[in-house]
Amino acid sequence: MVNTVAIFHGYGGNKANSWLTWLNNKLAEEGINTVYPTFPFMGSTTISDWYNEFSKYQVDLKEPISVVGHSGGTTFAFYLAQNTNIQINRMVLVCPLNNIDGAEHNRPGNESEATFIRNFVHQKFNFDLIKSHVKEFVFILSDNDHNVPFEETKDYFTQIFPTAKYITLHDYGHINEKAGITELPEAYEELMK
């Protein structure tokens, strides 16, 4: 059983009606230690700023730990695995951002957001090093995600993580409260294994 779950929100932040908040509360009810930082707004910060915020919580980590990230939080999960010696039991990546730009961020009038997201997301990750710090990877994707194109994203990650577990949800959008998703039992079940 995992002792700590670190939960990383994405671009929209830590919201009361988010499935991430639901997950945090559900895990806490089970007596599992959680670390759920509120990161600075992704539109005006860098990934190292997020690490500085996370470092305030490192004293609360009790190994073994698992990590769950949504959207931009998945980028931070990879960053954490690459840049620290924290050993991660399971990493659950929901709607993971990658080097593929989603249609939502490429629409006219959204150029500054798209440029920022590219700068935040397009890190030069050493995935071999990341794999050495993470025991298991689980990807949860939605087949109609407008921010993270499903087929391209799955193809991208299966090349890097061919032995990972992939869960596809039907018609869940970007798996956030905007898509009406306020609970995600699939993530909870994977973390409790």
Descriptive report:
This protein has 7 helices and 6 strands. It is an alpha/beta fold and 193 residues long. It has one domain: Rossmann fold (3-Layer(aba) Sandwich), CATH 3.40.50. Strand 3, helix 3 and strand 4 form a beta-alpha-beta unit. Helix 3 crosses helix 5. The longest helix has 12 residues. It is globular, with a radius of gyration of 15 Å. About 4% of the residues have low confidence.
- Record the strand order, biggest sheet: 2-1-3-4-5-6
How far apart lie the N and C ends? 7 Å
Q: Using the CA coordinates, give the radius of gyration.
A: 15 Å
Low-confidence stretches: 102-108
Q: Using DSSP, what is the number of strands?
A: 6
Averaging pLDDT over every residue, what do you get? Answer: 87
String of helices and strands? EHEHEHEHHEHEH
Described by the principal axes of the CA atoms, the overall outline is globular
From the structure provided, what is the oligomeric state, counting identical versus distinct chains?
Answer: single chain
Annotation keywords:
193 residues; alpha/beta
